[in-house]
Design goal:
Strand order of the largest sheet of chain A: 1-2-3-5-4-6
Largest sheet of chain A: 6 strands, mixed
Oligomer: homodimer
Distance between the termini of chain A: 31 Å
Order of helices and strands of chain A: EEEEHHEHEHEHHHEHHEH
Number of helices of chain A: 10
Largest interface: A-B, 23 and 23 residues
Chain lengths: 278, 278
């Protein structure tokens, strides 16, 4: 991996890297914020998965998370949302399919399967890469995300018990097999086999017996995508049915934007800090 | 004035407005963050002047200031950096002249003078407008800004004693009559009369006997514009010569970006809060 940018922030360093991904078969870019503590010791990491249309740039610019990471002493790992490059399949006129819309799954259908392997990228390749090159405590990590990235955080935590210490999400797509965004992407990337779809759906994973670690979800009541796309009530219903612990906070008047994320990111980072310290 | 957007953040509201400006003779857009306290009482205001190429959007998205404003209970007023619209003179191929580069002065030269009256807009028109329509304590305000906006904050504070309770700046253009950005804009907007230029130059104003209220300036040592464009040493030298109080903090390793602003905006807001409370 090659460092291509480094900006000082809150006493630490906001770095950007690129590397040739063996999962996605293309050059990938990501950012890592290293808190001041990382200058002298290895630190835990919080992975942040971003939403539709985003790159690593949105969260590092808009969420205000670096301040809390500097205070709490852990790194923020901010990957891209899909494979990139001219060789990668795409539907340029759609914001919710193709580049910027990887949905954190391993595609099985041509022409997507060659590059859209974001699940393996996030859960295996990227951690191995950065733990080998950056001052991170190997294996000590948590995961969070926004919208499509909230979906990604939840499915990673559910499917990979023991890999993450804690999970949280802002405005996550909780039941993609029942939502237009999810239906379009899952049918395109995964084909017609709905059993396979369910392997990447937080609500269906809970129904199938997967147990999340304690999870924190924040959802704005004024979110324009709440009713049709996000469906947190389905996820909560599955958790209640399975007797698993979940905290959903419906936040009055907040929308789907990073202004909502910024308002509560401090509480999410404190939540993860408690899990990463134990 | 007409409210065109409202987003909940940190329990308050990040609003955007547009109005027909009598100073600039065009439609102007600005943002105001109203903290939770503004729901029940009038609050003080901090005006934030942005830098070259910016609109009201950069600071509201990138600085992380709303969190502190919500805690401290004051409003953030975020105006645009120039007049706007098809009728407004511009040099589209230049980022440092014309739209986005108003330099917070009143232009005297055609075709600029018709619309580029940002000094009056910031100091007179905008406060009168928003104090009449929003829950702000009339006249209780401070001012800050970044780069060209840091220049703007300093000259407003110097030229308008009593109008602002405190002033701060990030990476300000401290001596524009001696810097390429300033020379180009001042000669274009103000013509050849260098006496007039000095009326909009913080260093020259101090030399001429204007006294700033205690001012806080943060400047990154790794700022790519420091040596040629910003010249804080000239401002400090003038202050020393005139025996006026100034605090310049050279911050090791920080660049010119909003990541630098975000790192210290909390300290600036606390600084202004002390002045606004007394």
């Amino acid at each position: 991996m090659k460092q291509i940018e480094s900006v000082k922030e809150f006493g630490g360093w906001l770095n950007r890297y690129e590397h040739e991904s063996t999962s996605c078969h293309c050059k990938m870019t990501f950012s890592v914020y290293l808190p001041p503590q990382a200058a002298t010791e290895k630190v835990p990491a919080l992975y942040w998965l971003s939403g539709l249309t985003c790159t690593d740039d949105n969260v590092r610019t808009k969420a205000g998370a670096q301040r809390y990471a500097a205070e709490l002493g852990f790194a923020l790992v901010m990957p891209d949302t899909s494979p990139r490059g001219d060789a990668v399949a795409d539907i340029p006129e759609r914001y919710d399919l193709g580049k910027g819309a990887g949905f954190y799954l391993n595609a099985t259908q041509a022409p997507w399967a060659q590059h859209y392997q974001m699940y393996d990228y996030i859960n295996v390749e990227l951690p191995e890469l950065i733990e080998a090159h950056l001052p991170l405590v190997p294996g000590l990590k948590s995961i969070s995300g926004h919208s499509m990235g909230g979906h990604g955080a939840l499915i990673c935590a559910l499917k990979e018990p023991g890999r993450y210490r804690s999970v949280s999400a802002f405005s996550p797509i909780c039941h993609p097999v029942k939502a237009p965004w999810g239906e379009v992407c899952f049918s395109t990337y995964l084909g017609d086999d709905k059993n396979l779809w369910q392997q990447y759906d937080a609500t269906e994973l809970v129904k199938a017996g997967h147990k999340p670690m304690p999870a924190l979800i924040d959802q704005g009541t004024a979110d324009e995508f709440l009713a049709e796309q996000l469906l947190p009530q389905d996820f909560v219903a599955a958790c209640v049915q399975q007797g698993v612990s979940i905290q959903l906070r419906m936040q009055d008047g907040y929308d789907h934007s990073y202004h909502f994320v910024a308002s509560f990111i401090g509480e999410h980072l404190a939540y993860h800090a408690r899990a990463l310290r134990t």
